[in-house]
Amino acid sequence: MAQGLHLIWMILCVHLICISSQQEIEFIYNGFSQADLYTDGVAKILTKGLLQLTDGSGQKMGHAFLKKPFEFNSPGSFSFSTHFVCALVPKPGSTGGHGIAFVLSASMDLTQADATSFLGLFNISTQGSPSSHIVAVELDTALSAEFNDIDKNHVGIDVNSLISIASTPAAYFSEIEGQNESINLLSGRAIQVWVDYRGGVLNVSLAPLKIQKPSRPLLSRSVNLSETFPDKKLFLGFSGATGSLISYQYILGWSFSRNKESLQALDVTKLPRVPSHKAKKKKPATLLIIFLVLLAIIVFLALGAAYVYMRWKYAEVREEWEKEYGPHRFSYKALYDATKGFNKDEILGKGGFGEVYKGSLPSNELIAVKRVSHNAEEGMKQFVAEIVSMGNLKHKNMVPLLGYCRRKGELLLVSEYMPNGSLDQYLFHDGKPPFSWHQRFVIIKDIASALHYMHTGALQVVLHRDIKASNVMLDAEFNGRLGDFGMARFHDHGADPATTAAVGTIGYMAPELATMGACTATDVYGFGAFLLEITCGRRPVEPGLSAERRYLVKWVCECWKMASLLGARDPRLRGEILAEEVELVLKLGLLCTNGVADLRPSMDEVVQYLNGSLKLPDISPDSPGIGSFTPLVIGSNHNPASPSTKPLSASFYSSSSANDSTFVTHSIVHGHGR
Ligand SMILES: *[C@@H]1O[C@H](CO)[C@@H](O)[C@H](O)[C@H]1NC(C)=O
Ligand SMILES: *[C@@H]1O[C@H](CO)[C@@H](O)[C@H](O)[C@H]1NC(C)=O
Ligand SMILES: *[C@@H]1O[C@H](CO)[C@@H](O)[C@H](O)[C@H]1NC(C)=O
Ligand SMILES: *[C@@H]1O[C@H](CO)[C@@H](O)[C@H](O)[C@H]1NC(C)=O
Ligand SMILES: *[C@@H]1O[C@H](CO)[C@@H](O)[C@H](O)[C@H]1NC(C)=O
Ligand SMILES: *[C@@H]1O[C@H](CO)[C@@H](O)[C@H](O)[C@H]1NC(C)=O
Ligand SMILES: *[C@@H]1O[C@H](CO)[C@@H](O)[C@H](O)[C@H]1NC(C)=O
């Protein structure tokens, strides 16, 4: 009985020893921060738990081993399963190379082994020697012909030699595709490796990180571990090597169990990140991209700013009602370009309404662009309608109005360019040769004809409102052309005190204009003043002259009274003068400037007087209204309600627009006349 008990105890004892020697070793490292590993060479555990086998240097190797040896007794029952995740990152600028191995070795000391194609496992003398006591699963990323490598991206099982007993290109069996999918070991991405050993068969499987363990192993080969490790003791670890081909080689995590079933799966989310060594290489590219993006943003902003600037620079006011005037509408940009950006050198003249610029359209047509500043948007619709209608008036002695453009506070009127400028330059400026009587008489008849057409030729009566020498333009053949119709209402006080708002110019304005407003008779008055002006070569009012000569109408009348009517004529008149014609024009001038509107002739009669088909009525300097001059002067200190800020409301077409008188309510009758 005691013997029996003893036997039982013995059996138990042996069993316990067996169990203890067959230590239940099992571990899992999701990163190696906590791991106590033996490392040598360039191998080390980096912060964040990454096990680095090789760094970026060449001809180097590194080893990492579990410090405790792994022992086994009965070869038959000996088995293990392991799972690890590695990443091989080619050194930037290199194709990357050599490789790593999962090692079972009798000794942890592999410092005498060589790097490069020996993978840190063997040296020239231990290679192929049974005394090496090494079994390895190699992930080889270089083709070493001396070891019969099949390619530079393969997995092999090595027993005491780098000439693998089994090898195959790196791949995994994809359950979804039902076929082998190759794996690029040097992709720099994490790769899972499983090594299973049981019943003398060593299986190796690979898969990318996100893929589950394939059902079929990549390599399956019988290996007699009892034969390689006769001492039944081995160390588990990794080896990595570089040569002239260099990779950063890392192990991210490692799980091990003696029993395939109890192998713990690695937690992929807890694994350390693989450093991106491409970053170094990518840096210039990143900088370049940032630079390009910034450049693109700058260019975009610049273009945007340019667009906004252009929009602002060429901004126009365009309203719905203007659509019908489309053909008469010029774009501001077209005018801007035509006048070379409203260049000062292109200024033809400055009037009471603003500057006039010479311009050239792309069609080579020459134009004159008048910029009229105003601060009245009200009534603009009617004014534009009138301007456009004016443009529709066609007469050989009128300056053709081509169109207009509107901007905020600004109206641009485009007319044909008159090469020889305005008449007043020839009358009053010393630089130009004075005109002969013949030339002047032609111009007089031209202007009479134009005004006659305006008063009677169009569907409605059109008033000019501002007849004077400076509004008479000369074309290439020195024909008179009436221009600037209707502009009187755009007068700006500051620019030219000789012009009044809305009603015209002092000396050309009929006395009743202040109270009755503009009508054809006021135009006739202006024409009369113009007749005297062109014949006498002086302005209707010249404040510098003595009292009796100051007002032209009065003075011509005085001359007539003294029986020397012709003495009033321009002393600079060149060539022959036709006394009857000069006399006729002077008398007609006085007739037209009659202080009593009803006693003035119509333009129809004026034309006939001038062409001789009607005799001038018998008048004397003492006839009623003749030679009476009542100058109208606009108050120079205008208040905010002054005409320039008034809506542009008066109609061009009303022959007796008494309501126009609103424009002259600020006029004061100057005491000079009487
Ligand atoms: C090879 O390694 C062994 C030990 O592993 C060492 O004794 C031997 O000297 C080495 N030979 C060479 C040529 O490095
Ligand atoms: C996959 O590769 C293994 C090892 O090279 C091979 O034995 C197997 O036949 C391949 N399977 C397919 C479906 O190609
Ligand atoms: C090794 O793979 C074979 C199939 O190729 C399989 O039958 C065997 O069970 C595997 N052994 C281990 C330990 O996984
Ligand atoms: C393995 O090797 C040992 C020692 O050489 C031998 O005794 C055993 O029979 C071998 N096992 C197999 C399955 O070949
Ligand atoms: C008038 O215009 C014509 C045509 O452009 C030109 O040839 C001529 O010189 C001009 N005359 C004067 C005096 O400017
Ligand atoms: C003078 O002008 C009037 C009006 O335009 C016209 O009817 C008449 O025929 C002209 N007479 C001469 C002689 O030209
Ligand atoms: C002037 O305006 C009033 C009121 O708006 C109008 O009744 C009158 O007919 C107008 N007079 C003229 C001549 O247009």
TrEMBL record:
<keyword id="KW-0723">Serine/threonine-protein kinase</keyword>
<feature type="transmembrane region" description="Helical">
    <location>
        <begin position="287"/>
        <end position="310"/>
    </location>
</feature>
<dbReference type="InterPro" id="IPR000719">
    <property type="entry name" value="Prot_kinase_dom"/>
</dbReference>
<keyword id="KW-1003">Cell membrane</keyword>
<keyword id="KW-0808">Transferase</keyword>
<keyword id="KW-0472">Membrane</keyword>
<keyword id="KW-0812">Transmembrane</keyword>
<keyword id="KW-0430">Lectin</keyword>
<keyword id="KW-0418">Kinase</keyword>
<keyword id="KW-0675">Receptor</keyword>
<dbReference type="InterPro" id="IPR011009">
    <property type="entry name" value="Kinase-like_dom_sf"/>
</dbReference>
<dbReference type="InterPro" id="IPR008271">
    <property type="entry name" value="Ser/Thr_kinase_AS"/>
</dbReference>
<feature type="binding site">
    <location>
        <position position="370"/>
    </location>
    <ligand>
        <name>ATP</name>
    </ligand>
</feature>
<dbReference type="Pfam" id="PF00139">
    <property type="entry name" value="Lectin_legB"/>
</dbReference>
<dbReference type="InterPro" id="IPR017441">
    <property type="entry name" value="Protein_kinase_ATP_BS"/>
</dbReference>
<dbReference type="GO" id="GO:0005886">
    <property type="term" value="C:plasma membrane"/>
</dbReference>
<dbReference type="InterPro" id="IPR050528">
    <property type="entry name" value="L-type_Lectin-RKs"/>
</dbReference>
<dbReference type="InterPro" id="IPR019825">
    <property type="entry name" value="Lectin_legB_Mn/Ca_BS"/>
</dbReference>
<keyword id="KW-0547">Nucleotide-binding</keyword>
<feature type="signal peptide">
    <location>
        <begin position="1"/>
        <end position="21"/>
    </location>
</feature>
<protein>
    <recommendedName>
        <fullName>non-specific serine/threonine protein kinase</fullName>
        <ecNumber>2.7.11.1</ecNumber>
    </recommendedName>
</protein>
<feature type="transmembrane region" description="Helical">
    <location>
        <begin position="234"/>
        <end position="252"/>
    </location>
</feature>
<dbReference type="GO" id="GO:0004674">
    <property type="term" value="F:protein serine/threonine kinase activity"/>
</dbReference>
<feature type="domain" description="Protein kinase">
    <location>
        <begin position="342"/>
        <end position="614"/>
    </location>
</feature>
<dbReference type="GO" id="GO:0030246">
    <property type="term" value="F:carbohydrate binding"/>
</dbReference>
<keyword id="KW-0732">Signal</keyword>
<keyword id="KW-0325">Glycoprotein</keyword>
<dbReference type="InterPro" id="IPR001220">
    <property type="entry name" value="Legume_lectin_dom"/>
</dbReference>
<dbReference type="Pfam" id="PF00069">
    <property type="entry name" value="Pkinase"/>
</dbReference>
<keyword id="KW-1133">Transmembrane helix</keyword>
<dbReference type="InterPro" id="IPR013320">
    <property type="entry name" value="ConA-like_dom_sf"/>
</dbReference>
<comment type="similarity">
    <text>In the N-terminal section; belongs to the leguminous lectin family.</text>
</comment>
<dbReference type="GO" id="GO:0005524">
    <property type="term" value="F:ATP binding"/>
</dbReference>
<comment type="similarity">
    <text>In the C-terminal section; belongs to the protein kinase superfamily. Ser/Thr protein kinase family.</text>
</comment>
<keyword id="KW-0067">ATP-binding</keyword>
